Amino acid sequence: MTGLAALGMGLAVIGAGLGIGNIGSKAMESIARQPEAVGDIRSNMILMAALVEGAALIAIVMCYLVA
Amino acid sequence: MRKFILSFWCMLSLCVIGMAQGHEGHDHSHDHGDHAHGTEAHDGHAQGGDHGGCFHHEEQFNPGNVAFHHISDQNVYSIGPLQLPLPVMVYAQNGGWDFFSSGKFHPDGHGVGEYAYNKYVLFEGMIHRVADESFPGGHINLGPHNVGEKEIDGRKRVFVCYGGNQYEALYKSTADGGLFGGGITNFYDFSLTKNVVSMFLVFFLLGWMFIGIARAYKKREGQAPSGLQSFIEPIFVFIQDEVAKPFLGHKWETYLPYLMALFFGILGLNLFGQIPFLGNANVTGNLAFTAVLAIFTFLVVNLSGNKHYWEHTLWMPGVPAWLKIFILTPVEILGLFIKPLTLMLRLFANITAGHMVLVIFVGLIFVFAQGNWGGVLGTSIGSGLLTIFMMSIELLVAFIQAFVFTILTASYIGAATEEAHH
C-alpha cells in the first residue's frame, strides 16, 4: 500500500510538472513576443501555476492519507 | 558579496563537520550504553540510572526520521548545541493544569529529557505524558536515554523506562486526529512552543518595522523615502498595484490591510525560518498555522460575498434545473471549501518540503561518511554546495508562496464582490 501511494504521489507530480511546464513555456513565449506585458504575464503565470499545484497537492495529501 | 558567500560557506562547512564529529561521539556513547544495558539485563536489575539507559536510538542513521524531527514543533528552542527552555502550559484531563519551564526536563543534545515532571516527559523536543496511573508525579530523575520510541503495529510509540518498568507516554492531543502524529489523547498542550515564540518574535519585529515606517511617512512628508522605508515601499506598492487593484476593482482599499498583513506576515515567517542555525522554526510549514490563515480567508471571502456571488454559487442562472441540482450546485459548494483547503495545503507543503530537503541534504553527510574523515570532508563540501543552492531556491519560494497566498486571496475576494455586468 505504501509503495502504491508513493507511485500515486509520483504520478500526481508528473501531472503537475506537465501543467506547470506548459504554463511556463507559454509564458516565456508570450513574454518574448510582447516584452512590455511582462508584469501582467508574470503574475497570471504564477496564479495559474498555483492553481495547477493545488490539484496536485490534494492528490499528494490523499496518497499520504492512504499510505 | 563574494566575501560574504565565502565566509558563509566556510562557517557552514565548519559547523557541519562539527556536527558530524558530535554525532560520532554520540554513537560511541550509545554503544557503551547498549553494552551496559546488556549486562544490567543479565544481572536482573534493569534500572537505567547511572549510565546507558534502556533506549539506544539510531543504530543506523535515518534521514527521513531526522527530517521529520527537525520540521516539527518543539517545546525547547534548540540553537546548535544549546537547548533553550520554553514555558510549558499543559492541561491533562485527570491531572489539571501544569505550568513550568521545559528546562525542568534537562534535555540532552537530541532534546530527550533526563527528568520527568508531573508525569510529563520530553522526547525529541516534544512533550509527552505518561498515561499510566502508577507512574509517580513530581520531579523524577530518569537518567539519560530512558525515553525512547518503539514501533508497534507500524506506528511509533514513545516509552519511558523507570524503576525496571516501561510506561507508554502519549503525544499531545491534536485537532487533525493524528494525521501528522498525535491524535486524541489525554492531555492538551497550550505551551509557548518554538513556533509560537518565533511567531511572536516575527510579529513584534514586523510591528516595530511598520510603525517606524508609518511614522517616517508622517515626518518626511513630500520627501524621498529613506532607510527601511525605501526597502519596503517598492514591495508594498507592488502588492497594491499588481494584486489589490486589478483583482478588487474600486473596493481595493477596504481589503488592502488584510492582503498586506497576509503577505508580510507569511513572508516574514518564511524568511525567519530560512535563517540558518537559528532554530529554523517551521511556522508557515505548520498545518495549524496555515489552516488559521485559510479560515480567515474563507471568512473574509464568504462574509463579503454579494448577492451575485451567492446566486452564481447556489443557483447559477441560465442552466437547466436538473443540471444545477445534481452537478453544478454540489460542485460549487465543494469548491467553497476546496479553495481554502488548497491555500492551506499549498503553503504548508511548499515550506515543509523546502525545510525537509535542506535537512536531508545535510543528512547525506551522515549517510555517506560513516566515521572516516576523507568522506566527511568530501560529502560536506558536496552537500554544503547543494544546501546553499537549495537555500537560494527556498528564498525565491518564500517570496512566491507569500505572493501566491495573497494573490489567490485577492482573486477569491474579487470573485465574491464583483458587481454584475450583464
Describe this structure in words.
The complex is a heterodimer of chains A (67) and B (422). Chain A is built from 2 helices and no strands. Chain A has helices at 2-33, 38-66. In chain A, helix 1 (2-33) runs antiparallel to helix 2. The longest helix of chain A has 32 residues, at 2-33. The radius of gyration of chain A is 15 Å and the shape is elongated. Chain B has a 5-stranded antiparallel beta sheet with strand order 6-7-11-10-9, with no helix packed on it. Chain B has a 3-stranded antiparallel beta sheet with strand order 4-3-12, with no helix packed on it. The termini of chain B are far apart. Chain B has 2 domains: 33-66 and 81-192, no CATH class; 196-417, no CATH class. Chain B is built from 9 helices and 12 strands. The longest helix of chain B is centred in the C-terminal third of the chain and has 48 residues, at 321-368. In chain B, 57% of the residues lie in helices and 14% in strands. Chain B is globular. Chain B has 422 residues and is of the alpha+beta class. Chain A binds chain B through residues 39, 43, 46-47, 50, 53-55, 57-58, 60-61, 65, and chain B through 179, 242-243, 338, 341-342, 345-346, 349, 400, 403-404, 407-408, 411.
Multimer state: heterodimer
Count of all domains of chain B: 2
Strand content of chain B: 5-15%
Query: What is the general shape of chain A?
Result: elongated
Q: Strands of the biggest beta sheet of chain B: in what spatial order?
A: 6-7-11-10-9
In percent, how much strand structure appears in the residues of chain A? under 5%
Quantity of strands of chain A, as a count: 0
Radius of gyration of chain B: 26 Å
| CATH fold-level topology of chain A | F1FO ATP Synthase
Order of helices and strands of chain A: HH
Q: Main sheet of chain A, how many strands, which sense, barrel?
A: none
Q: Give the largest interface.
A: A-B, 13 and 15 residues
Report the average pLDDT across residues of chain B: 79
- CATH homologous superfamily designation of chain A: F1F0 ATP synthase subunit C
Major beta-sheet overview of chain B: 5 strands, antiparallel
Class from helix and strand fractions of chain A = mainly alpha
Secondary-structure element order of chain B, N to C = HHEEEEEEEEEEEEHHHHHHH
Low-confidence stretches of chain A: none
**Gyration radius from CA atoms of chain A, angstroms:** 15 Å
